[in-house]
Structures are given as structure tokens and as C-alpha cells.
Amino acid sequence: MSELIKAKHQLGALSGVQKTDTYYEIHYTSGDIARLTILADGIFRFQVGNFEQNPLELNLDLFASNYMAKSSAKATSEAFIVQSGPYRLVFGQKPALLTIFDETVHRARLSEVSPIELGENRASQFLKQNANEFYYGTGLQGGRYSHKGRQVLIKDLGVSGEGGTINPLPFFWSNAGFGILRNTLADGLYNFNAENGKASILTHQENTIDNFYIIGNSPQAILERYYALVGKPQILPDFALNMGYLGNFIDQKWLSADKSKRDALRFENGSYYQKDLTNSDLAVSASLNGEDNIEFSARAMIDRYQRLNFPLGWIIPDFGAKTSVSAESLNNFTSYANDHGVASGVSQVQNITEDTKVAFINKDQAKKSFDALKEHVACPLVLTNDGDARSSRYAGLIYGETGGEWDSIKVQIASLLGISLSGQPIVGAACDGLYGGANAQVNVRDYQWKAFTPLFFSMDGQGNLPKLPFFFNNKITRINRAYAALRQQLSTYLKALFKEARDGDLIMRPLFMEFPHEKVNYRDDFAHEFMLGKDLLIAPITDGREDENGYSIKDRLYLPDHRCMWIDLFTGEKYAGGRVYNNLKYPIWHLPVFVKAGAILDFGKRHFSIYPYANSSTLALSDLGQTKLESNLSDGVLTVTVNPSEGNYQENDKQQTTSLDILTDRYPGKVVLKINDEPIRFNEYGSNETFQAAKEGYYFSSNYIATKDFSGFTDKRQNVLHVKLSARDITDTKIELIIDNFSYGGLAMAHAITDSALRPPRQPMIDSKKTSAHSITAVWPNKAQVQIEVNGIVFDGIYSKSFTFNSLVPNTLYKMRLRYISGNKVSEWSDYFGTKTKPSQFTYAVKNIKLETMLGGQTENATDLIPASEWISDKEIENNSELNFIFPEKEALSRMVYVPRSADQVGRILNGKVLISENGTDFTDYQDFTWHNDPKNKVIGLRDVQAKAIKLIINETSDNLVSAKQFYFFKAK
């Protein structure tokens, strides 16, 4: 067998099968032996090679063996077939191809197109790819979550930005209804674009195959079965709902600073300080308990959060510390934190004590830390920034990257969705990043959307700028405080999502999870939006465009489902679904957050907000049980039902009040209350004061704001019917409200009327001069309000004679038509027109460039085509320091692009010379350059240049070091 594997080969023809009590043993003419084990309903294990290995430490003893016994098998002249429940596993005889057929849907879930291939350091599987099949999972892939048409690296690159990978997972799933978990820790490459998109090739650097096939009718079903293998996500403690803070109070130091410095922070003593990055003798040391200077202590940070009304839930005070922590000092601080309602943690497993509730550790220490905390804490919080399939059952994933950049927001949204779809729902990214920053607008916009992510925290002390929600001016602080309070308001909603996540539902969800009938949601077209649960859609501001009032301009805001209405959480404005809105304006406090019509939001303590629309229901979860609520709006009559609660309620838990906020367009008609189907007297109150004083009744108000902490930012209010009911036995009480003459949102969903008097647009066309890989500009004769349908999706909010569509997919056909709008009337559609976007510029980027220099550092990061990776030299430049870029072969070039680091000004190239070599040895002068000290890309034109190597002579940089995010060299087209 070992001799066979050393040479690359495919599985030969199937030559024999033997059934044992625990597996089917399958023999191939190539000499390979495989095993098939049926673990559970829809979970199958297929191994070729070493049958004893279990690198992911899966607890396979939990699976009952009776599924093997219940299976049946038969052989034909063409295949060996195993039947397990509705699943038929067909092993082709020659060629040796596997197909898994699901009789419940009458089709194959997955099919191989070529036999498994094995080699000395390579094991590959080849799957058929369907036209409408999409792929998800594989861990945190920087900036993307949908993998169709891409190659995905299963390797920890140690960087999380665009193109980077952390927490790689050898697990993916398809919307065709299957997932595959490869039981391996070896690096891999999943090519979801093989044979022009007709196949997927799954490869790992090992000589065996150990696959777990998971079959399910939905993403939730697949993930739930995946958790049966790797373990369910941890149960989060209540304090994890609040903000977290990671900082270094062990070896951080501070220097007195001028208040004009951008990194200066004002402390309680009235003086300004900045972090010491130079080991100055004048620096003042931080501490846990303020033994020397209380202002710089971890205790003072807790006090600071609480004094400024930011709800701090947990703190890691030794984040990034290189000095050991005194046990006595740590115990004193932990006691102080616990006394102030803050869970204290550590970043070293040996420092865990009986009072520790949080640990931030590396993945190899996840289980050990979890077990140590579990001895004293019912629900510990374990976090890591480098997880894998072994650690996901014990630790959530948190990370930080460069702050202060708009692109980071886009990348992180897609990244968090991607890792969530990979079976790791307990995730978060640091507010304003780990390094960089200093952009107040990016800070507040970043802080806003992250208040709606599973874990909400700051990572401080690693860069020169403080990472605090109150670092900027009072206006920014007020906005950040309001979003922290809103998260608290949603804590019951979030807590229910945490519970549901253990059964395969996600907390952060891409749009297709809630709207699976819309194909556009499966791609990356709207990767910068997400659902929080099933009722809230979050559409973060992701760029700095503003109007003349300083309001953010939001384009490409997609609200799915033409049958659905969406309500702005803050203003109550209503929008029809199934279209893309453009030119929306949002002041800096206003994050686009939309409530799905029909939502019943649980704000805790049996307080619910209802957005009536057709038929809807929700299951309100608590620590003791659950309560089903229903809302039905039909023919102007609204019926709201609160069913008896089910669960483990003790006698003193059963008597509870109930309150409802029912959103409405106008003052309603008659209101009838039924308790256990019997009408009872129900009083209306004419003022808020009398209503608050009453035990039971209802009150109509036109001064409602769903988010009370934002009342100072907007004067927009909504109509609401407040209802409150006195305490009753919730396990034995059915509550029913019947409201006549009720209306909510009817005008928003009114269909447009086609008016023949409005002539359809003539000659709309594409401005071909403005077409790029990611944008297309449509033009039409007259300035007017129009709608444009693009590949079946309607774009609204356009008033002009041209419009540019951005964030498009390269090398993709976009088919359009246009119509005019006047009020609620529309013209007929124009004829179709359109074009194809250009190929991505990176199609022409030279690959496998080698950088040689005497300056040191990880030079491979400068040319690996991964934007998230960066290079910084170890040494400073001297006279005529050289960077030599050597190409695999002689190339005809068009340009070179230097992308400076943006986190800080370290190593930015300012002045130098370019030299060209056609043979890789002899160089001739080409061009001198002088560049500004800013983060913008720098371009050197290389038209008509042919080169085997290019040399940069560096004369000047920002600080005598040299750095780069990337050096790109593009071929001539």
C-alpha cells in the first residue's frame, strides 16, 4: 500500500465489499482499501488509508451503531449500493465514483466526476458542480463568504483582511443539500471553479482521505449535523451580551502629551497622555490596581466605562502583555471587577482562578481553559483569535485588524458571515480595529454595525491610538453610547439567537438564509448586509461619501422579497421589498437598520413590539421556557395572540405582567381583550400619565420611538398602541387582542400603476468608456426619476440622466431595462440593453514573484497577491538600498502598483528609481519617482516594457524602514 501511495494514482475499479458490525470494507483494484461507516441519519464516514487517525478529535463514540445494522446493501454489475433510510450511496464499479442519492427529493445530493486521487502529499476529490450550486464554509476567508467560481485556501495565513485566512476549516457545504467535513489538520485548496465551473476539486496535503458526508434539506439541518460531529457552540453567559474590553495593563506605559496630538487621551487628572512606544525613562507604567498611578490602571478603565454609561460586561486586562502577572495583583483586580459587575479574564491559562470567568487564549489551550473555567463557572466565556475545527466547541473567535479604513468594514462583514456559515456563530471583530484608526467617521460607523454582531468589544493597547468608544469628541461618544444601550435593549432577542445557534440557526445571517428563493442572495452582490436573526436587517455604511449636509449617501441598499415590507427601526419609514434603494441619506447617528414587517420583537420581561403584517409568529425564549406569539392582520382586523407559556416555571415565576407596543398607521377602532377566550373589560386611557398609573389598559400615542436612547438625535416619531396587562399565570393564560379598523403600511406596498401617458424611455444605453471590472454606467436622454431593472432586480431612488452601478462582479453580463416614474405611476419598460463588465485586473497580475533584498522581513508577503498580508523590513535603508523583483519568466508589462501600508506611516516609500532587466541580470535605468507620504496607491507605467526582473532603488522612506501591503506587476493585455 505504501508503495502505491508514493506515486500519484486514482482509486481503481471496485473489486470487493465486506460488511462488518461497524463498517463496510471496500476494496479497489489499485490496492486501496476504504471503509464506509454510517454514523447517524444523514451522516456518513468514508475513509481511504489510515483508519485509526482522528486529527480533529471528533467524539465519535457519541454515535449509536444501530444505523449500520439498519442499513442494507446490494451489488449490481455496475455498482455497490448501500441504503440507509432515504439515502442511497452508490459506489460505481468502474470508474470508482460515489453518488449519494436522496429519495426524499428524488435527486443526487452529490456526485463524483472522477475517482479520488492519492499521492505522497496530495489527496484530491472531484465533485460535479451544478449551475445553480453555491458553496459556503471553509472558515474565515477575508472579505468573502460565497465561494462559487473561486479557489479557497484551507490554511492559516495569520491575517484576516482582504484575501487573508484565519480559523481555516476543512468543512464546506452546498445549497444542493450536502456538506463535507475532512478529518484533517493538513493544509488544503478547494477549487470551486474547475473545468470552467463544472467541477470542484478538493485537495489536502496528505496521502489519505477521511470524509464525513452530511446530508440536509437546509443550511440549518446541515450545520446541526455538523455540530453532532464537532460539538455544539458554547453556551454564552449573560455578560457576553454587553461590551467587552481587552487591554494591556501589565507592561503598557504612558507619556505626557500635548492635547493637539491625534493620539493624546485626556485622563481624569485633567492632563493628556499618549502611549509610550519608545521605552522612555519618563514614561509612567500602567497597572491592574493603580498601585502607582490610578489613572492608568485597569480599575480606572472599569470606572471610566461605568461613569460614562457604557455597559461593560467583561475585561481581559493582560491582552498582549509580555510580562508575567502577579497572582496577588490579578486576584485583587478580579475581586474589584466582580464587585463592579464586570467579568474578569486572563490571557494565560495558568492564571485562571476560581473567580475567573473569561479567557482569551490560543486554540491549543481552548479545551484546557474551558475545562478550568467550567470547574467554577456555569457558563464560561473562552475566546481565541486563531481557532480551528477542534476549538470551535470551546471558544468563540474574535480578532482585530487595521482600523480607520472604510474597506475594512466591507471585508469584516463578509468575513463574519463566512465564519458563521462555517459553523462558528460565536464571532466578533474589534471595534475600530486593532491598529490604526484616527478617523472619527469610520470609528462611529464601525461601532454602529458591530453592536449587532454576536460579540461586541474593543482591543486596546496594541497600536498608538486608544481603542475606546469615548476616545473621540462628545458627539461621537453620545452616538456610541446610544448603540451600546440599543444592544442592551435587544439583549433578550440576542440571547434567544445564541440559544438557536446551537441547533444550526445563525446569529448573523446572509440574506439567503431568510430569503432562499432569491438567487441573487447566494452570491456576493449584497455581501455587506446581513440579517440579525429573522427580523432585523443591518445595512452598514461602508464608504465616506456625503451630501452637502454631511449625511452619508447610501447606494445599493437591497431590501429583499417583493412580498415583504421593511420599516426603518429609528424613523418608522416604510419600504417595499424586492428592490435596491439608492441615494438614501443618513446622518452620522443613523445606521440603516430595518425591521421585517410581521416581526414580534422580544425586549424581555414579556415586553414585545409588534410590526403587524399578514400572518406572523415568533417563539419567545427565556431561561425557564418559551411563549408563542401570533399576529394576524386581515381585512382591517388585527388579532394578536399570546399563548400560554411552556417550560419549567415554579409557582413564584408564573405570575407575570405582559406589555405590547403595536405599531399602527392611525388611531384604531374598537379594541377587545379576551382572556382564555372570554372577553373582559379593557379600558382606554387618554394620556401617558394615566396609562402608566393603571394596572391594565391601552393607550394610543403618536410620540413613539422604538429606540428611546436615540430620542435626542431625531424628532421623528411613530404611531403606536400601548397595551399592558396585569399579572396572570402565564402558563395557564391565553391572551387575545382583537382590534378593528386597523392599518399598518398599506401605502408602502401599493403597486405602481402603469400609465400609457408616460412614454417609455428611448435609447437608454451603456457608456462604454466608463465600464470597468466592477462598474457600469447607464445613460438615458432626459433627467428624470427612473427605475432600472438589472438582472431581474429593480434599482430605485434614481433621479438623473445617468447612473453608475458599482461593486459589480468582474467579467459578468448585466442585462438592464429602464422605466420612468411619476408619483405612483410608471411607464412601460424600455427595451433591454446591457453589457459585460471587464475582467478583474488581477487576472493580469504576475504571480509567483520573488522579492530579494538585504533589508529582511517576510518578503514573500509583499508579492503574494493577498491584500491583507504586509511586509515591513527588519533593517533601515542605506545608500542605494535595493528591492529586486524576479519574475518566473520574461513578461510584457503594463504597470507596477505599490500599495503602502495604511495602519500607520511606517516604511512608506517616498523617493527612488526603477530599473529594468530583460535577462534578470543586466539592469538599465527606467524612471525616477517621488511619491507623497499617504496611503494612496502609487503607479509606475510600464507600457511596452519587457522584463525578467525589475529593481527599485530606495533613496527615501517615511522613517528609513521599507514596507508594503503589496507590490503588483500587471501584464500587458
What does this structure look like?
The protein is mainly β and 973 residues long. Strands 1, 6, 7, 8, 9, 10, 11, 14, 18 and 19 form a 10-stranded antiparallel β-sheet that branches. Strands 39, 42, 57, 58, 59, 60, 61, 62 and 63 form a 9-stranded mixed β-sheet that branches. It has an 8-stranded antiparallel β-sheet with strand order 2-3-4-5-20-17-16-12. A hairpin with a 5-residue loop joins β8 and β9. α8 runs parallel beside α9 (474-489). The longest helix has 16 residues, at 406-421. The two termini are 48 Å apart. The model is unreliable at 1-6 (pLDDT under 50).
- Poorly predicted segments: 1-6
The radius of gyration is 30 Å
Please, what is the oligomeric state?
A: single chain
Largest sheet at a glance? 10 strands, antiparallel
Structural class by sheet pairing and helices: mainly beta
The portion of residues forming beta strands comes to 35-45%
Q: What is the number of E strands? A: 71
Distance between the termini: 48 Å
Helix content: 10-25%
